[in-house]
Amino acid sequence: MNEVAAINSERLNLVSRLIGQATEFINEVYIPDVLTVASFYKDWAQYGGGLSNYLSYGEFPTQGYARTDTFKYPRGVVLNRDLSTVHPVNPRDSQEIKEYIAHSWYTYSGGNNEGLQPWAGETNIKYTGPKPPFETLEGSEKYSFLKTPRWKEQAMEVGPLARLIVSFAAGRTDVKEVVTATLGKLNVPVGALFSTLGRVAARALDADLAMIWLKSTSTS
Q1: Are the CB atoms for 106 and 125 separated by under 8 Å?
Q2: Within 13 Å, how many C-alpha atoms sit on residue 72's CB side?
Q3: Distance of alpha carbon 77 from the chain centroid
Q4: Is this model's pTM higher than 0.85 or not?
Q5: 3-state secondary structure at position 20
Q6: What is the distance of C-alpha 58 from the center of its chain?
Q7: How many Å apart are CA 162 and CA 193, to the nearest integer?
Q8: Could you read off the pLDDT of 13-53 as tens digits, one per residue?
Q9: How many whole angstroms separate alpha carbon 117 and alpha carbon 93?
Q10: Which of 164, 216, 215, 213 is closest to 192 using CA atoms?
């Protein structure tokens, strides 16, 4: 029990303290700072909408990845910003989800214009950008180490905002409460999520929800 890697009361107390410190920082620094800055730039709720399609693979399973109904962030797709419908997603369907690298610093053995299902994906790095340091990647055909996801051949946005939007549309109570409260504090409509402002706020709320769930798990 006294080994460095042992899980004992001392280690569990350390984890609890770290969770508490992270929660304190998010609640007293991160979220307040985001809300304060956002209140001066609410016009950005009209810009930066992106692709209008959002994909979530699902995350934070509470009973294993086989039980997708127990994910904290549900799996699904929202198309054209339509929050009334969440489309089902099957990540293992070779024709449903594909990743493209036309604008990424990778190569595919079958050609850079084909799409590969994530489970069959290739990650062969081939950087073709300018030599650092550089000021801009504007005009470059390839400009990222991120692949481009498509669902049924439709370009999708993924990440914190996508997870939040799919969860909100799916009616997840804990997510809706946090999102609704934040929109209320900024006095902006739900449509503000589809913007640069919403994207920045989503990262903060993603951290907030992670701590809420982690804290509830650690005390249960």
Answers
A1: yes
A2: 16
A3: 13
A4: yes
A5: helix
A6: 10
A7: 10
A8: 888 899 999 999 999 999 999 999 999 999 988 888 888 99
A9: 8
A10: 164
Distance CA 89, CA 156 (A): 12
Distance CA 79, CA 45 (A): 19
Burial tier of 124 (Cβ tally within 10 Å: 0-12, 13-18, 19+):
exposed
Angle formed by the axes of helices 160-169 and 173-186, nearest 10°? 110
**Is the confidence at residue 155, as pLDDT, over 70?**
yes
- How many C-beta atoms lie closer than 10 Å to residue 163's C-beta? 28
Burial of 198 (0-12, 13-18, 19+ CB in 10 A): buried
Q: In what order do the strands lie in the sheet with 148-151?
A: 97-100, 148-151, 154-155
